[in-house]
Write a structure and sequence with these properties.
This protein has about 525 residues and is of the alpha/beta class. It is built from 20 helices and twelve strands. The strands form two sheets. A nine-stranded mixed sheet has the order 3-2-4-5-1-6-7-8-9, with helices on both faces. A three-stranded antiparallel sheet has the order 10-11-12.
């Protein structure tokens, strides 16, 4: 009796059958079954030598309800795997060698099976009914186990929730037939996909970042990819990902979820407001806004209120909680991109104890591996921000980051489909590049690993006072309103404009100053 797979969600062992039968008995019902069809299928398999090839990928020994039918089918599969003929005599002989002949009912019972059908013409149809019954029994078994464990006070509720979801997912994965496809059909599907991509003038095949130079290299965030964005503190990791999140949700109407483990939801929204309204973050923090700035804030952030952005600021989020929440967000809200800020603040399995650097590295490795699995399972890109080690600071030269600077770099680098580094030369006092061009306000996105594309570096503009990134050749992504302490302005509701007056002109030249500028809202 197999006991090591008791939590795997797979069909079968006698123990599980008994669990299902016990539950059925307690409800006054017999577990779902189709014994007569099981007999017909086994008989057909011994009548026609090619019948097994039609059902071997969907029928497993544990799919059968009766234990003797499981043994007979297992022997048929053994013969097939050994390239031996499958018929009444060979199956009987194989069971005799295994010492199972009397258990299954003897040679007479096997002979009776072959007399119940004339051919294997309906074997696939009969097999699907058998599978449906097996799925129902498995669902009953899962429900029974969950029902029992839910009463236990020592059970972690999030672990139980994850186990429930995974068990249901396994039932579907194990029992749903996966058909192979011939080259013609695959080619047809590939051509159709290429035609769809051709119609996309911007060349984007994934979730857009909104940064032209970066999208040109990556074609957007791709489905099922795990993307790691890493940098030292002060480089603007959160500003970058919040800008990219805003672009995807507001400009392209893509549903995005962000799990903010470092900042509260209000702090994160304040960053979005500062970038969207182009008001200094310090003013947003203190609420020290002029009347026209309030009008500017309300008008410019109207689109944010309707944006499909979902924020979860649960601290010390575990991988089990993340998986459960991610599944719900995708199922209920159609989320197409998940962001985690940031990786090192996540927790692994709470049931595992122990401390120390070695254990923490193993925990991070398990988290990154789980994130990749979630991305594949939900078929969406997952972006995780990550810290770089202090090795960057002590290294000479321009302190440009490299893959070895990733904390717990081995596991993260291995699991990630793409690794991006954020780097701002001016942070280290570098004012010009090797060609003598100014690097003030320039942020670099360095693609250090790209499993399905090329490595490149994209340059963006970093606007610190608005905590945002935008395209390098864009003076202002949102309209270029003057801002800061050198300007005053008034909002005119009738003309829907803001009139800006320079304080310098007003103080130095009085009424003879330069005419104020007027900007449409």
């Amino acid at each position: 009796m197999e006991t090591g797979k008791s939590q795997s969600g797979r069909l079968g062992t006698k123990t599980r059958a008994l669990v299902s039968q016990d539950l059925g008995a307690s409800l006054g019902k017999v577990p779902p079954q189709a014994v007569d069809l099981e007999e017909a299928v086994l008989g057909a398999l011994m009548l026609e030598k090619d019948a097994l090839t039609n059902v071997i990928d969907i029928l497993k020994p544990d799919t059968f309800y009766k234990d003797n039918h499981k043994e007979i089918y297992a022997s048929i599969v053994d013969l097939f795997n050994n390239s031996e003929p499958v018929d009444l005599l060979t199956v009987t002989n194989h069971l005799r060698k295994k010492g199972k002949l009397e258990f299954v009912g003897g040679a007479y019972y096997i002979t009776e099976l072959t007399s119940r059908v004339n051919s294997a013409a309906h074997i696939e149809y009969h097999s699907r009914i058998i599978i449906e019954k097996a799925i129902k029994r498995e669902l009953i078994r899962v429900a029974s186990e969950i029902h029992k464990e839910a009463y236990e006070d020592t059970v972690d509720v999030f672990a139980l929730l994850d186990k429930t979801e995974q068990a249901l997912f396994d039932v579907s994965e194990i029992n749903i037939r996966k058909n192979y496809a011939d080259m013609r059909s695959i080619m047809h599907e590939a051509i159709l996909e290429l035609e769809i991509k051709k119609q996309q003038a911007d060349g984007l095949t994934g979730i857009p970042t909104g940064f032209t130079a970066l999208d040109r290299v990556t074609s957007g965030w791709q489905k099922s990819d795990l993307v790691i964005i890493a940098a030292r503190p002060g480089m603007g990791k959160t500003a970058f990902i919040v800008s990219a999140m805003r672009n995807a949700a507001v400009d392209f109407n893509k549903a995005v979820a962000i799990f903010s483990l470092e900042m509260s939801s209000i702090q994160l929204v304040n960053r979005l407001i500062s970038a969207e309204a182009e008001l200094e973050s310090d003013k947003i923090k203190k609420g020290n806004l002029e009347d026209y700035e309030w009008e500017q804030l309300i008008h410019k952030t109207a689109k944010l209120s309707d944006a499909p952005i979902f924020i979860d600021d649960t601290p010390a989020l575990t991988i089990l909680e993340l998986r459960a929440k991610a599944r719900k967000l995708v199922a209920q809200h159609g989320v197409e991109l998940i962001i985690i800020d940031y990786l090192q603040l996540m927790s692994g399995d709470n049931s595992r104890g122990g401390g120390g650097q070695g254990n923490r590295e193993q925990e991070i490795a398990a988290i990154s591996r789980s994130l990749k699995n979630i991305a594949k399972e939900l078929n969406i890109p997952i972006i995780a921000l990550s810290q770089l080690s202090r090795a960057v600071e002590v290294r000479g030269g321009d302190k440009r980051p490299q893959l070895s600077d990733l904390r717990e770099s081995g596991s993260i680098e291995q699991d990630a489909d793409m690794v991006l580094f954020l780097y701002r030369p001016e942070y280290y006092g570098i004012t010009a590049d090797e060609d003598g061009n100014s690097v003030q306000g320039v942020g670099e996105v360095i693609i250090a690993k790209h499993r399905n594309g090329s490595l490149d570096t994209s340059k963006l503009k970093f606007i610190g006072k608005f905590t945002k990134f935008c395209d390098l050749d864009s003076g202002s992504q949102y309209g270029g309103f003057p801002s800061g302490d050198n300007f005053e302005g008034q909002f005119n509701q009738e003309t829907n404009t803001i009139t800006f007056q320079s304080k310098a002109n007003k103080s130095d030249q009085g009424d003879k100053g330069v005419p104020p500028g007027t900007a449409p809202f």
